[in-house]
Amino acid sequence: MIKKNLLLIGLLISGLSLLAQNFPGKDVELIVGKEIKVLEKAESLQKYGFEGFYKDPDLKRKYACCQSYNSKYDELVNKVFKVISYEPYTNNIGTDKFKLKIENKETGIIYFDYSSEFEHTFPFEVIGGFDYPKGFLCRDISEKIDKFTGDSTFNTPIENDISLIKVKSKKGVTTYLSVNVFGSTANVGIKGAIFLLENGIKIEKPEAEIKVKVSSYGKGYTYSAFIPLNSDDILKFSTNLITDIRLYVYDSKIKDGKKYLEYFKCIIEK
Q1: Is the dihedral of CA 163, 164, 167, 172 positive or negative?
Q2: What DSSP designation does 47 have?
Q3: β-bridge partners, 102
Q4: Pair 192, 248: CB distance under 8 Å
Q5: What pTM did the predictor assign?
Q6: SS3 of 11, please?
Q7: What is the pLDDT along the chain (270 residues), one digit of tens a residue?
């Protein structure tokens, strides 16, 4: 039973990470022209329907009303919409939001009241993921300069427990890949990392040292590795989508490899 519960926790954490890759935040332009699919809810939540869907651009008349004051669950679940456009607006309590104009052959044009602040209110999968314009994600890379040595350290945000670090010093330039993976059991003194890229490309780091600590989620363990990359690694990572990671025997599937591909391209130019 304990192992089963730990497995479920791991899947939940993984699932939350994957869903996060569908959330555009304030970059709403990334989903214009894309298809978005309404995700299924847990059975216990289906009775509440879906919030935020409207017939009119003034967001007054709820679409397929009503199920617990919301749109009926069965009228929307698994439907695929095309995002036509968006419009920023401020609601009655002063919150900045967006109106998404979306279309489906069955429903016609309807509107979704979109909050860029809360991922859990975005009930969609972005089919095919985001298409990032060239250099779009380079703005996310931070730079810190050591005032004593003059060394520059560039960092990407931690996305799905992966981050890139590039250090430029008088001695040279080194790029690292920091990775975290969830595991249900504890192991110490272990080594070995494998990265699967598209087209069957595999990058193996058998000597990569792996650290373990109790997961911040309360159960299970977080395995982490801090891996220096050579020029061949960087070339492969910057020209191919990453799909899967294994630390020791614990795996993590990467949903939005496009983001890491762009981050690698950006970090090379720093």
Answers
A1: positive
A2: G
A3: 83, 110
A4: yes
A5: 0.76
A6: helix
A7: 433 343 333 433 333 333 445 799 999 999 999 999 999 999 999 999 999 999 999 999 999 999 999 999 999 999 999 999 999 999 999 999 999 999 999 999 999 999 999 999 999 999 988 989 999 999 999 999 999 999 999 999 887 789 999 999 999 999 999 999 999 999 999 999 999 999 899 999 999 999 999 988 778 999 999 999 999 999 999 999 999 999 999 999 987 788 899 999 999 988
Distance CA 133, CA 137 (A): 8
> How far is CA 95 from each of CA 31, 38, 69, 70, 123, rounded to the nearest angstrom?
21, 24, 21, 20, 20
CB 132 within 8 A of CB 258: yes
Contact 176, 227 (CB under 8 A): yes
The type of residue at 182 is F
Peptide bond into 66 cis (omega under 30): yes
Nearest CA to 211 out of 181, 186, 188 is that of: 188
